[in-house]
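#structure-requests
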Amino acid sequence: TNDTVVASQAIKPSDIYEEGAVVFPVLHGPMGEDGSIQGFLETLKLPYVGTNVLSSSVAMDKIMTKHILEVAGVPQVAYTVFIEGEDLEAAVAETLEKLTFPVFVKPANMGSSVGISKAENESELRSAIDLALKYDSRILIEQGVVAREIEVGILGNTTVKTTDPGEVVKDVAFYDYQAKYIDNKITMDIPARVPVEVMTQMRA
């Protein structure tokens, strides 16, 4: 309740439980999207909508998501991984061998492009790794590509519904936090201008 939040008191199940209540955990960022609040709700035995603890935690972890996509055979860009405490020089060498500039350097467990950098050379790569390490000890380095960004909303479990695809239209070179939330340089084309057969395939 508001009084509980203002007084910084512990929240009891009785504070938020109502007969037949269902929680919509529409929370953004760490603790809201990574399975933490979902686990809390399950502990309280409160039903909620959206993905469960495992799905939420995996989707928030970019490196784990890459591994799962690989197993599922989903095409994705080439990448390397650096873990804090490992040999940085070896990680840089592996990246230079496997990828070409530009590359994107990302903390594994942040959202909204926080801590992400675009690197055009080795010096920028090293600086980008330093920045990303301020947010996470596990770093994902991905091959940069020039491509359209098209999104499809998905709703359901056994019976799934999808939205029309929408294209993110960017007036910036890098879709960073500033562009997403402050500069208003991002618009959406809905539906995306793609052939009917492509739209059907995306929603399948």
